[in-house]
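Tutorial handout. Part one gives the primary structure; part two gives the three-dimensional structure as tokens.
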Amino acid sequence: MNHIGFIFDMDGVIVDSMRTHEKAWLALFADLGLKIDLKEFHYQTAGMTGTEVLRHFLGNRFSDAELAQLSAQKEFLYRVLFRKKLKATKGLLAFLKAAETLKIPMALATGGGKANIDFILDGLSIRTYFQSVLGAGDVKHGKPNPEIYLKSADALGLLPEQCFVFEDALPGIEAAHRAGMRIIGIATTHCVAFLRKVPGVIVAAKNFERLSPKQFLSLRAET
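Part two.
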């Protein structure tokens, strides 16, 4: 037994989708009469759930039920916009196949909802690679809280220090670091040079093309 496991974030790791999410948000806010600066949006909303993003910009203009409906509209728009662009991050499919061959257990841990998870996993036909799939509806606290990563490790039957997390964004990296896991930074949201300096990141790469599951076997925790 290899005694390690891989846990993947979804948006920005499995797929390079963050720009499309931002476009969907900006389009929704435009319909509501708000003009949001993209840079401001990016830095103010990192790690927030959809409802939290809406509450941040809309205040108390809408009820919780109305915010949930608006959030669902945004996610539907995202899927419409991204459907023609849907493809795995470079090198990911080969990486997943190699990890499966080595019998390394894998999990998905995302802040996304079920509809988006189904859209990505089934659209790319990769669901069978993951022994655990957790999303926003499976935790009480989103990233940077470590809850989703700790639950994923437990689902794989592993200790946190036995897990390697693939993340692109700072809230997710912080969550994995707080969970006591080692992190591979995927440079879709931030550049490689920046990610190498972030606490907890042991490897930073543009994508999965130059990553191999075998390289992490030599870094496995002693058990």
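Part three, for discussion. The beta strands are 5-8, 106-109, 132-134, 163-167, 182-186, 201-205. Residues 5-16+89-217 form a domain with the Rossmann fold fold (CATH 3.40.50.1000).
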